[in-house]
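Before a computer can learn anything about folding, someone has to put a protein's shape into writing. The three-dimensional part falls to structure tokens, numbers that each stand for a local backbone shape. The protein below has been through that process, and both of its lines are reproduced in full.
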Amino acid sequence: MKQKYNVKVEGLDIEFATGTLAGLASGAVTIRSGETELFVSATAASALRPGQDFFPLTVDYREKFSAGGKFPGGYFKREGKPSEKEILTSRLCDRPLRPLFPKGFMNEVQVIGLLLSTDTTHEPDVLMVNAASAATLISDIPWNGPVGCVRVGQIDGEFVTNPTHDEMLDSDLDLIYVGNETEMMMIEGSAEFISDERFYEALQYGQEAIQPIIAAQRELAKLAGKEKKEFPLVLTPEAITEFCEEFAAAKVKDALAFDSYTERKLAVEAITKETTAALEEKLGAENVDGNDVARAFDEIQEKLYRQNILETGRRVDGRGANDLRAISCDTGVLPRVHGSAVFNRGETQALVISTLGTSRDVQDIDGLTGGAKSKSFILHYNFPPFSTGEAGRFGFTGRREIGHGALAERSLLPILPPEDEFPYAIRVVSEVMSSNGSTSMASICGGCLSLMDAGVPITAPCAGISVGLVTERDDSGKISKHVILTDILGAEDHFGDMDFKIAGTKDGITGFQLDLKIQGLPFDITLEAIKQNAAARLKILAIMGEHLPESRSDLREHAPRIHTIKIDPEKIGALIGPGGKNIRRITEVSGAQIDIDEDNSGRVLIFATDKTSMDRAIQEVEACTAEIEVGKTYRGIVRGIKEFGAFVECLPGKEGLVHISELADFRVKKTEDICKLGDEMVVKCIGMEKGKVRLSRKAALEDAKEATEEEAPANAE
């Protein structure tokens, strides 16, 4: 779509445009790559809501089915609640934008992205981040951007910028990189056991690759950028800050020395109430805003947490910067489930359950923008309010839960066996029981143990851990001192500068995510963090290995067993039967599930929960696909009566003629004297003539008589 102002990104098939659409929005752009195009707007509220005590930034990305020339499914034919992909793209965009707004800016900002057109080749998630940056940059909203975003793949050892869906099939890296002109802002993605060194090189490559995108946004801002508005900043009054410092700082310092998260929290709450009462007595209740006191206490805690770490190297729980909290794990904790594990790290605890299913349990994906249409591995993450000792809304799956589940899912996916070797659908559910730092990484550790407990033959154990950062800056604003923290607490995440999660095996990295609260991460600190994370990850893997060194050799009792049969592809129709009649009958009589590969290879999968069910299903499938063989005896059903003999169905859909002379060892005058329609008859195949099967009841009876005579002397002896 051509607009008044159009700027192309040098060296990349990307174009920004603005000036025609959505003139009343604070900022609005379209972005195009190939025939994939998005519209993104950024708008700020002119005033704060009453009692507002936080910065309400919302980013919403929506895919319109019209973009792919399709109708939405369902009765209403209208797009409904956001899909998992839309939520993940919204989060992806939110995280690098948020730290770049000025401190104290609290006017609501809303960023909305709409997919206008898709060519199913170019993925729109990266475009959404770039367009959101451009829309906010050219708007009148105060913001310290821009940022650039690329997807980095690795094909045959070479890095590739913004690979297409087809190219990603050959890539062993999926890195979404966001940065500014000089430093990294956010990363997310997965890899197939990439080394720490190669991972760092990929980050450097991404930093270079985003520069033309940032330059194009700068050019667009020169052409169409609005003058930034002056918004009133919400800052704590100096008098409140000073009083809280004098009255409560020493008490808060003592409270932060408590071992338990709950003890620290309750102690700080009590001091806050005491301080508020003292303030109201001094200044008058009408002159004290609870939000101001809350912000002052937040600042006091932040200062104390950071000071203690930077000056002494010790943390609130007594650990050094590189120390892990106490770790323990257990497996097989629940009866009947297919696999279960509990993973504890300090006050963080995850109960993780694995379930094995059949191909019918695979999750379908609409695939509007291209890529996979289904997935057979699903990880769901649940974060109930009791996990933080609070009461709150329950039963609602929030964006955070979707995001944490996706991170754990893509981190564990590379260790799963190929589907042709282990053709199960797998669902892992992480129930967070207690939360004080990095529950997504606990879900990866617990998820791995749960899979191993279920007997899933993983390629190698996988673990994850998060590292944080505390920095001090000089007068010029540059980082003059920093400490990287292994295994951060919830408070260290909140008051610190970074949450850098990396998961992997001893052979390399499988998943990663970086969130910052500062406006960029220098590359020397990045490398240090990667190395510190790797050391901690190996320690966790060693602890997990002591409990369960490898996957259990067999599946749990109640897990579905699987058996693979290879049949002639031409016999698939016979197995299915008219209108699915045969396969339905087999399912009903055996209790097993029968799946036929759609690739016309003749591969048949049988799922059953007990041996009897499995044996019956195998017998029935083999009967449906077998051919009548000369010399074999069959128990068949009489399907036709003629003057010259009877037609007997030996195998499903396969029959032969028992001539009247072969019905008995004496002369038979009428076929009806021996059998009638529907009778069961034991027959032997005595020949094939021009594709016609010759059967004999007489020969089958003689074989049975001889077998009886042989058994009689043996019994007498």
Q: What stands out?
A: The radius of gyration is 34 Å. Residues 523-547 form the longest helix (25 residues).
